[in-house]
Amino acid sequence: MSRFAAVPGGAGLDERLLALRLDPEDVYVAVQDYLDEDLSHARRDVTSESIFDPGHKSTVAVTARADGLLAGLPVAHAVFHAMPGEIEFAYLAKEGARIRAGQVLARVSGPTRSLLAAERTALNLLCRMCGVATHTRRFADVLADWHTTVLDTRKTTPGLRAFEKYAVRAGGGDNKRMGLYDVAMIKDNHKEAAGSITEAFNAVRSAEPEIDIQVEVETIDEALEAVAAGALFLLCDNMSPKELGEVVEAVGDRAELEATGRITIDMAVDYAATGVDYLSVGALTHSSPILDIGLDFEE
C-alpha cells in the first residue's frame, strides 16, 4: 500500500481534470501507482535525500524543448500534488494550445526533494500526452477542409488509455470507444462464430438492447448486409480509396462509415475525398513519438 493516500487536489485541480473529461479520483489513484514505480512504496529518492535538506525549497520551470501541442498539464500537476509538502503549480500555457521550443509551460515551487522525486513521472506523462496530441493535430490539420474526423483505437499503452485518448481529443481527433464494454464491435471472428453478419448483429442486439453496435466489413455486400440488419456504423477494413468510395455511394446516409487499415497521413486526403466520415489510426497512440519537455531550476 502506498505511503501517501490519493488525496483530492482541491476544486481548482479537480475542475481542470473534469474539463479534460478525466475523472479526478481515477487520475489520483493512477498517479500513486506511477510514483510507486519510480520511487517504490517507500517513496525514496536516495540521491536527492542525500544532497538536499528536508526544508530546502526551489522553483522549477516546465519547459518545451520542441514545437508541438500542449496536452496533459493538469495531469503533471496531479503528480506534483501527490508529493509531500506545500507545492504551488502555476499554469503559464493553455491546454490544447500550440507551443514552441523554449516556452515555459508551468512553474512549480516547493520542497526540492518533492520536486525532483516527481520530475520524471510528471514529464513521462506530459511528454507522452503532448506527443499523441501533436501527432493527432497533424492529421486534423490535413483533414481540416474535409468533413472526415480522425479517430483513435484500443491500441493504447496499458495503464495510459484514458490519458492517451484525452490527448487525441486535445489534438482535434475523437475517441471511437474506450474499451470492450461501452460499444459492441462485430469483427471477423464474431461473424464466423455466429454464421453471418446478420446473425451476429441480432445476437448482440438481443443481449444488449441499448448498446451501440459497430460492424467491420470488407466488401460492398457485407456493408449492405450490415445496414439491412440495422447497423448504423460500419468499419471499412483495408479498403482502397476506390473501394471505399463505392461503399460510401452504396450505403449513402444510412450509416456512418469509418476507414481503417494502416492509414498514414499521406493517404488521409485520398480517403477523406471518398466522403467517409472517419479515419481510425492506431498509430496515434501506439506509435506517436514523445514531445520533448524538460524541467529546469530557476534562480
From TrEMBL:
This protein's UniProt keywords: Glycosyltransferase, Pyridine nucleotide biosynthesis, Transferase
Residue intervals of the Quinolinate phosphoribosyl transferase N-terminal domain: 45-130
Highest taxon of source: Bacteria
InterPro entries in alphabetical order: Aldolase_TIM, NadC, NadC/ModD, Nicotinate_pribotase-like_C, Quinolinate_PRibosylTase_N_sf, Quinolinate_PRibosylTrfase_C, Quinolinate_PRibosylTrfase_N
Top-level class of the enzyme under EC nomenclature: transferase
Pathway as given in its UniProt record: Cofactor biosynthesis; NAD(+) biosynthesis; nicotinate D-ribonucleotide from quinolinate: step 1/1
Quinolinate phosphoribosyl transferase C-terminal domain ranges (all copies): 132-296
A Pfam family reported for this protein in Swiss-Prot or TrEMBL: QRPTase_N
GO cellular component: a single term: cytoplasm
UniProt EC number: 2.4.2.19
Transferase is among the record's keywords: yes
GO biological process terms, semicolon-separated: NAD+ biosynthetic process; quinolinate catabolic process
CDD domains: QPRTase (cd01572)
Entry annotated with the keyword Glycosyltransferase: yes
GO MF entries: nicotinate-nucleotide diphosphorylase (carboxylating) activity
Reactions catalysed, as given in the entry: nicotinate beta-D-ribonucleotide + CO2 + diphosphate = quinolinate + 5-phospho-alpha-D-ribose 1-diphosphate + 2 H(+)
Gene3D superfamilies: Aldolase class I (3.20.20.70), Quinolinate phosphoribosyl transferase, N-terminal domain (3.90.1170.20)
Purpose of the protein: Involved in the catabolism of quinolinic acid (QA).
Family per similarity comment: Belongs to the NadC/ModD family.
Subunit architecture: Hexamer formed by 3 homodimers.
Official protein name in the record: Nicotinate-nucleotide pyrophosphorylase [carboxylating]
Provenance organism: Glycomyces paridis
